[in-house]
Automatic annotation (TrEMBL):
Keywords: Cell inner membrane, Cell membrane, Membrane, Transmembrane, Transmembrane helix. The chain crosses the membrane at residues 45-70, 90-121, 168-187, 249-266, 298-326, 347-371, 377-396. It comes from Aliidiomarina soli. It comes from the Bacteria. This is Paraquat-inducible protein A.
């Protein structure tokens, strides 16, 4: 019998066809890719993940960037970009940068190597299930590619100010980012879980072409397996099943409201404070954009404007709007709403660019009274906005765009009606 899956974005139960290498299966309704068969998937992912880990080790010991100005020189290693905030009284920002650029990607790669080695050797290793679940949970928080763009933006910003040199670690970091992106894009969770734990026997037949919830079923967020609602936890990966309901929208709106409030100080307070012989200059987000445009760096001005102004506002506006119109048939078709949800979910993490730029500049530009850069309170507020809007997008239930009745779903009521 063909394996059944509930589409993670529209809840339609789909019978997965037997796939050959190079083929993919998409949801017939919302067109989301459900699974993809690569050639030699285990070996391919292992090769990328191991190479990425080796590159990660090379990003640490050598010089990342150096700058020289008027006889003063400063040389930083990659970790300095994270610790720079700590020495400036913003320890939370230090933790956030270290986590998204180094710690979580490192743990992610170790988990991938462990799980895929177990799969390739056809062995059951202790903790493999827990680590396989961690692979899905960590994925949205990997921001190495965003950090790399942040480095490039800082380079352009600094070109006119001082003599900047890129160190060995910078080139290792570029390799690490490319290999990590390749690892992530080659992981197919459906294949990974099937290879790791096979398919649990289904005690019932889920009807394809009908929504899972209306059959009393729910797809696991982590491994995709269909489970009965009353089971509470996934039979294969033991993760708690995420139920639809009012609480999802309420969480989403609460997070969006907090993000909107924090977006005000993020724009009013300075992001960065530049101290030179001539005095101290504070620059806000929009001030920084203006400054770059005046210096003729239109591309950098456009990138920062898009990442720090357009993306957060668009994300808050689109998600709030989706929450409010979810139970109304108009305006816009379901397909258009899904399209906008996918857009904001995809672009959300890129708004971290400016926070990374500040981290790099603060770590690198420390030449005493000649030229020094310090972080402003807006950096913390803005980082919080990015994290909160990402959490809001995760709390939002995209399946409710197709089935507004999911918003009213109550698992206790559902069980009570069926005497469970
Ligand atoms: Zn779908
Ligand atoms: Zn599961």
């Amino acid at each position: 019998m063909k394996r059944r899956r509930a589409c993670p974005e529209c809840d339609l139960v789909v019978a997965l066809p037997a796939l050959k290498a190079g083929q993919a299966a998409n949801c017939p309704r919302c067109k989301r890719e459900l699974t993809y068969r690569a050639h030699a998937p285990a070996e391919r992912v292992l090769a990328y993940a191991l190479s990425a880990l080796i590159m990660l080790a090379f990003t640490m010991p050598f010089s990342f960037m150096s700058f020289a100005l008027g006889g003063q020189a400063q040389d930083i290693v990659l970790l300095d970009t994270a610790t720079a905030f700590r020495s400036n009284d913003w320890p939370l920002l230090s933790i956030l940068i270290a986590a998204t650029v180094l710690v979580l990607p490192g743990l992610y790669l170790i988990a991938v190597v462990y799980v895929y080695s177990a799969v390739a050797l056809r062995q059951y290793w202790m903790g493999a299930i827990w680590l396989a679940r961690a692979i899905s949970s960590i994925k949205p928080w990997l921001m190495t590619d965003v950090f790399l763009v942040g480095v490039l933006v800082s380079l352009v910003k600094l070109l006119g100010m001082a003599d900047i040199q890129l160190g060995m670690s910078f080139w290792a970091f570029c390799g690490y980012v490319i290999l990590l992106v390749k690892t992530v894009s080659n992981i197919d969770t459906d294949w990974m879980w099937f290879a790791l734990r096979h398919e649990a026997k289904t005690p019932y037949v889920a009807k394809a072409g009908v929504d899972a919830l209306s059959q009393g079923l729910v797809g696991c967020d982590s491994c995709g397996l269909l489970n009965r609602i009353e089971q509470g936890h996934c039979r294969r990966c033991f993760r708690k099943l995420r139920m639809p309901g009012r609480h999802r929208i309420e969480w989403c709106l609460a997070l969006l409201l907090t993000a909107s409030i924090l977006y005000i100080p993020a724009n009013l307070y300075p992001m960065m404070r530049t101290v030179t012989v001539g005095g101290t200059v504070d620059s806000t987000i929009i001030g920084g954009v203006w400054q770059m445009a005046e210096m003729g760096s239109y591309l950098v001005a456009a990138i920062i404007f898009f990442a720090s102004i357009i993306i957060p506002i668009a994300k808050i506006a689109v998600l709030s709007w989706l929450c409010f119109v979810i139970r109304r048939p108009q305006p816009l078709s379901v397909e258009r709403r899904v399209y906008w949800y996918r857009v904001v979910e995809f672009i959300g993490r890129w708004s971290m660019i400016d926070v990374f730029v500040v981290a790099i500049m603060v770590a690198l530009i420390q030449a005493g009274a000649l030229l020094s850069i310090y972080p402003g309170p807006a950096a913390m507020a803005f980082a919080a906005v990015v994290v909160l809007t990402m959490l809001a997008a995760m709390a939002f239930d995209p399946k409710a765009l197709w089935h507004p009745e999911r918003v009213r779903f109550d698992v206790q009521e559902w069980k009570h009606e069926r005497h469970l």
